[in-house]
Each structure stands twice: as structure tokens, then as C-alpha cells.
Amino acid sequence: MKIPCPTSSLGWHAAPAPSAPPLVKTWLARPGALTAGLRALGAFRLRVLGEYAQGVPPDEAHGMGLAPGTPVWVREIVMSVDGVDAVMARSLTPLQASHGVWQGMRRLRTRPLADMLYHDRGIRRSAFACSTVKRGVALRGPARNVLPADTRESAGLWARRSAFWRAGQPLLVTECFMPGFWAAAAARPEAVGQQAWDAGGAARRR
């Protein structure tokens, strides 16, 4: 059975709004490793913005099944395509798990998280939840800081998230698509993969 998507009262939903552009719907539902799709668009690069411990914010606590304030380990990165910032991602797991079943997260450096997620049959992934990035969403501040200062107020950002589970411990991954991503995606439609949401909001295979 598919693990339910990590929705919350802050606007995370199991499918994007019907008014979302088709390209947005398609990429928000793209299965597998997002890094593979980005590499198909052009020259891929990953840079680490920060790695640190904090108390989990309420929005992310809900998505992980934790109490707000539970200590977690956080990793924030930006992935670029052909020198253009494409996706800002924030990953977190309980602090204790970052020394246990998810300790590999601490050793990634500039390697993508996908390197440790898609080669272990013991890892299960939830369905996606998606949203526009609103106030109260933990990713909002770091994502806006990646944008040029003169576009931070006007840029509408789409994001998706899912939770990976190993030995009962969650790893929540939120991926925010930067404005510069969409031009690259529109130019290479074949990179998107094989899944999109239909008009009724359900995920379907193409």
C-alpha cells in the first residue's frame, strides 16, 4: 500500500490546483529521482547551503509524524542546470536517526540524496504532496534567499514533498522549483518522465 502523502493545514495537497499549468503538474508528479530529470535538462551541479540541527517546525513535524520541536538534522541544497538555479531542496530526519539509519545523509557532501535512496529495497517512499510556497512553510525562507533580491516578493514558487521511511524512521524531502527551472523544462519535454496528474487530480501513467 502506498504511504499517504505528507499533507498539512498549510496548503500541502495530494494534487496541485486544477488551475496549475500542465508543465507544473507534470513535474510535481515526476516519479523517481528528480536529479535524473535535471541531468536530462543540461549540465547539473549541486551546492550545499547548510547542514545543521534544529527543532522541527510545525509544518514539517506534521509531514514526519513528529511532535513540533523534536530535534532534527537538516540539509539544504540548490541544484542548478547549465548554471541556472533550478531546484532548492530541504531534507530532514530525526537527529537520532541521522546518527543511525539515516547517517549517510551526513556524509553526502555535494552528492545528491538520490545516491542513498534508490539502491535500498528497505526504503519506502510516500506519495507526493504539493503546494505553492506560503508563509509558515519552512522551505520558504531558504528558497527565497536563493532568488535575486528584486524578485523575492513577486516570484511564485511551486514545491513538492515526500517522506522516505527506513526502519520506522522518516526522512522528509521538500523540493522547490525555482523560476529559472521552467524555461529549461519547457525546452526539453522528454526529460519529465512518465507520470502526470490528470484533470481530475489523480496521478496517471502516460
Automatic annotation (TrEMBL):
One of the record's GO molecular function terms? chorismate lyase activity
Reactions catalysed: chorismate = 4-hydroxybenzoate + pyruvate
Is Cytoplasm set as a keyword in this record? yes
Enzyme class, spelled out: lyase
Entry keywords, A to Z: Cytoplasm, Lyase, Pyruvate, Ubiquinone biosynthesis
EC number of this enzyme: 4.1.3.40
- Note the InterPro entries from the entry: Chorismate--pyruvate_lyase, Chorismate_lyase_/UTRA_dom_sf
Query: Where in or outside the cell?
Result: Cytoplasm
> Can you supply one Gene Ontology CC term for this chain's record?
cytosol
Where does this protein hold substrate? Answer: R75, L113, E175
**Signal peptide stretch:** none
* GO BP terms, alphabetized: pyruvate biosynthetic process; ubiquinone biosynthetic process
Pathway annotation from the record: Cofactor biosynthesis; ubiquinone biosynthesis
Tell me, in a sentence or two, what this protein's role is.
Removes the pyruvyl group from chorismate, with concomitant aromatization of the ring, to provide 4-hydroxybenzoate (4HB) for the ubiquinone pathway.
Family listed:
Belongs to the UbiC family.
PANTHER family under this entry?
Answer: CHORISMATE PYRUVATE-LYASE
Protein name in UniProt: Probable chorismate pyruvate-lyase
